[in-house]
Amino acid sequence: MKLNRKNKLLAGLLTVAVILLSKLFYIQIVNNRYKIDASNNSMVYSIIYPTRGIIYDRNGKILVGNKVAYDLLVTPKEVEKFDTLTLCEILDISPEFVRDKMNEYRKNRRRIGYQSVVMLKQIPPETYMKFAELSYKFPGFKGQARSIREYPYDAGGNLLGYVSEVDADFIKRNPEYKSGDYAGKTGIEAAMEQELKGEKGYNIYLRNSRNRIESRYRNGEMDKEAIPGNEVTTTIDAELQHYGQMLMENKVGSLVAIEPSTGEILTMVSSPGINVSMLADIGKHYNEIASNPYKPMFNRAVQAPYPPGSVFKLVNGLIGLQEGVLAPDTYYPCSMGYHFGGHKLGCHAHKSPINLEESIMMSCNAYYCYVLRAILENRKYSSIAEALDKWNEYVKSFGFGRKLGSDFPSELGGSIPDAKYYNRIYGKGGWKATTVISLSIGQGEIGCTPLHLANLCATVANRGYYYIPHIVKASENIVIDPKYYEKQYTMVDTAHFKKVINGMYRAVNSGFGSGGTASIAAVEGLEICGKTGTAQNPRGADNSVFICFAPKDNPKIAVAAYLENAGFGATWAAPIASLLVEKYLEGEISESRKPLEQRVLDGNLMDRVKKE
Questions:
Q1: Average of pLDDT values for 72-81?
Q2: Please, are residues 267 and 581 in contact by the beta-carbon 8 Å criterion?
Q3: Percent of the chain, pLDDT > 90?
Q4: Is 133 exposed, middle or buried (CB count within 10 Å of its CB: 0-12, 13-18, 19+)?
Q5: Which of 561, 559, 529 is nearest to 544 (CA)?
Q6: For 579-601, what is each residue's pLDDT tens digit?
Q7: Kind and range of the H or E element at 581?
């Protein structure tokens, strides 16, 4: 019995010994990685940064490419006495800069050890060549090539985004990055970071007993090549984007265009924006951009929570049709506005009474006060609160009150009020339809982005559904989310949409003499359908809003223009949106509309906007 126990113990020890020996053999002989890690003090890794993926527009034009620049690296422990003035002359830097850097390295010599640190970033090739010729005079200094972004086409800094060096917070959230790495921080660069960044490589060198680089480790057998980032094709039309930026120059707001049949974003302009010339070296210009009172880094197209104004009447009209409280031949009066109790919600002069098509054509406020009241006082609901919650559901089915799910970063969801919201303010039962009557004309507690409004326009153009707006196209190495191919239907029957589209067509194509508020947007042969909006603004003059699509049947483009403090929708937003449509569909602006184009290009509305 004792012998068996002893044999078992010996067998167990022998098994453990075999396992340990096998592991040691694997570590020391088979798997070279452990040997490399163990001898790190004698090895130097020279990082090879990958070429970042190129970004194209929908037609194959390069929006973001690459060019070579150099970083100047210093290995402090290898630095010997050198001619500071000569180095400064070559690199066009001050002696104070060099002295400060060397003092910094001396203070941190224990932490730095034998590492190389970046002393100067993004040296132009011609400057680096001067240094390379005399580099033997500067032991411990060396160059490291890396690609930086270049922008052959001015397609908007807010849209493209910028790349910058990662900081400690970014590394903490993304541990696969190391100090000295770069990443996309905004725009498409951030949205497609994983596809664009590529994979770093390295060369391994051996250091001798004097800490000098002596040779390649194992003749480069263990080196790793850098893998370039994937190319990304966007949905953006570069020419249209550039033209949109020209139209929005010296104006505050945004301009968004979508292809209704796909949800692809053709143009996304935020103005004022970041000039692409600043993107390649954003750090140099960051303070200038950040201190600009017009906030060029703020992408108004997806981040600004605006009231939609009168363009929202389309949504209320469609809900009224679906709920059965409104018909195309329903007439309501307007006496310079809607009167209730001792209050009045004003309107401009036009004929009265009017039907649905005419209410859209003339943008009558009173008409939609009657419509919203009919929706909320519908007797099939037990209370106005219940009716408002149903209204909330309808509105959200158009994409409002939430993020649309675009692939563009930093998208804002907006806000659509419900009964719970008003109960909190007024108390349960303490409010009625006239309390929230401003919702009828897209005011009050409604907040949305220009992307929401462009999506509304695409939804109407499609007669009741939309594709989630997106900015990246599927390509050889890029797969986009299947959700971008799915139709998103509203809760309104598709049959009702043609009734409001007729009103939008008449708004543009009837002429002011017949009451059309958007006749300035008419282009012969294009059948533009549109809706003006004038959104009240507590911070100054009204905002100018316009949405439109064209052609009326089989539409190719849907546009939303939103200009802060620019007044009536027909004054600035309608001309800008219609010029963008004409440029896209016709390729050029007709001679008869050249004066309008010039007025827009020359227009400067910056002083109207209150700076922060």
A1: 90
A2: no
A3: 67
A4: exposed
A5: 561
A6: 999 999 999 999 999 999 999 99
A7: helix 573-586
d(CA 62, CA 152): 7
pLDDT digits (tens, 9 = 90+) for 262-292: 999 999 999 999 888 888 778 788 888 888 8
Average of pLDDT values for 500-521? 84
**Residue-by-residue DSSP string for 365-383:** HHHHHHHHHHHHT-TTSSS
Q: Where are the beta strands (DSSP E) in 364-473?
A: 465-466
- Amino acid letter for position 504: M
Closest by alpha carbon to 375, among 467, 313, 456, 424? Answer: 313
Q: Do residues 311 and 446 make contact, with C-beta atoms less than 8 angstroms apart?
A: no
Q: State how far the Cα of 127 lies from the Cα of 395, in Å rounded to an integer.
A: 59
Residues 6+ apart with CB under 8 A from 261: 462, 467, 555, 556
Query: Model pTM?
Result: 0.87
Which parts of 479-533 fold into alpha helices (H)? 497-509
For 21, what's the count of Cα atoms within 13 Å in the CB-facing half-sphere? 6
575-608 burial string, b = 16+ CB within 10 Å, else e?
bbbbbbbbbbeeeebeeebeebbeebeebebbee
Cβ atoms of 311 and 518 closer than 8 Å: no
Beta strands in 185-248, from DSSP E residues, in sequence order: 201-207, 213-216, 232-233
d(CA 405, CA 412): 10
217-245 b/e (C-beta count within 10 Å ≥ 16 → b) = beeeebbeeeebbbbbbbbbbbbbbebbb
Q: Is 350 helix (H, G, I), strand (E, B) or coil?
A: coil
Closest CA relative to residue 55, chosen from 380, 472, 341: 472
Cα(447)–Cα(309) distance, rounded to whole angstroms? 10
Tell me the β-bridge partners of 543.
535
Closest residue by Cα to residue 63 from 187, 174, 180, 217 = 187
Tokens of 453: 């409004």
| Mean pLDDT along residues 424-434 | 94
Nearest-angstrom CA–CA distance, 464 and 201: 51
* Cα(516)–Cα(360) distance, integer angstroms: 9
The partner residues of 530 in beta bridges, in order of sequence, read 548
Calculate the alpha carbon distances from 41 to 78, 221, 224 in Å: 15, 19, 19
Triad 466, 467, 469: Cα angle to 5°: 110
Say whether 343 sits in a helix, a strand or coil.
strand
Query: Phi and psi at residue 232, in whole multiples of 5°?
Result: -125, 130
Secondary structure of 284-304 as H, E, C letters: HHHHHHHCCCCCCCCCHHHHC
Amino acid found at 224: K
Average pLDDT score over the chain:
90
Place of tokens 């806000």: 415
Helix (H, G, I), strand (E, B) or coil at 184: strand
pLDDT at 38 (0 to 100): 39
- Of residues 456 and 410, more confidence is placed in 456
What are φ and ψ of residue 245, in 5° steps? -65, -40
Q: How far apart are CA 122 and CA 148, in angstroms?
A: 8
Taking residue 23's Cβ as centre, other Cβ atoms within 10 Å add up to 10
Residue recorded with tokens 């019995």: 1
What distance in Å separates the CA atoms of residue 567 and residue 529, rounded to the nearest whole number? 21
